[in-house]
Here is the input.
Amino acid sequence: MKIALVLGVAVALCGSAPDEELDKAAAKAAEMAKYAFKLTSKIEGMGGGGGGGGGAGARPTDCKVDKDVAIEIKAGDQTAYKKGEVLVYKEGDAWKKYERQQGGGGGGGQGGNRSARTMGLLAGLRTPHEMLADFGKKLKEVKKAEAKENECTVFSGDLTDEAAKDLGRLGGRGGGGGGGAEFTYSGNAKLWVNAEGAIVKFEIFTNAKGKIRDRDMDIKATRTYEISDVGSAKVEVPEDAAKVLNGQ
Here is the structure.
C-alpha cells in the first residue's frame, strides 16, 4: 500500500508520461477536418536526373485540407486536387485525372518522366491527420525534451520497423523501388506540440537501403510538415476540376 501510494504521488507530481501526452495530441490531430499544411522534403540517394534531388518535394508543397470537399495541392506552378484515391491536375486548359503508369514509367499522356514522377508523388501524398493518428504506436519509445522550442514541447523517438517501412515509401509505393526490389527501413520522428496540446509541426526521417537491378540504393528522406489554419482553411475546387474529380 505504501509503495502504491508513493508511486501515485510521483505520477501526480510528474504529470502525464510522454507517450500519454503525445497520444492526446495525436488524437486531436486525427480529428482535424479543415486545416492547411506545408510539406518540405529532402530526398537523397534516388539517383538519376529529374527526381534524384527530391522530386516533387524539392520545393515546399502547400496544401489545404477539407475532409468534406478535397485536398488542394500546390507544388511549384502546378495545382492539383485529391479526393480519396483520385487526383486531378491541369494540363493546358483541361483538367485530367492522373493515371498511374504500369511499371513506374512516365511518358505518354503524363507529360514525360519528370512530370509523371511529380504527379505520382502528389497522388501518394498523405495528410497529417491520417499520419498522426495513433502516432505514439509508431515509435519504439517516446522521449520528451527538457527544453521547449518556440514555446512548444518537443517529442521524439525512433520509428518501429513497420512504421519506418510505411512512412518511407515514396509516392505510395515501396521506397523508390518496384520490380521486386527489397528494402530495409529505419528512421525517427520529431513532433512539436503547442500550449493548447496541438501538433503544429512534425518531421519524419527515413532511410531505405536495398538493391534495384543489382544497384545498391541508400535513400534518405526528411519530410517536415507545418500545420496551420486549423478549423478555418477553405478548399474551393474549380467547377471543371470538380467534374473530373467526381467522375462526371
The longest strand covers residues 199-212. The first helix runs from residue 2 to 14. Residues 1-14, 48-57, 104-112, 171-179 have pLDDT under 50 and may be disordered. The CA atoms of residues 42 and 222 lie 5 Å apart.
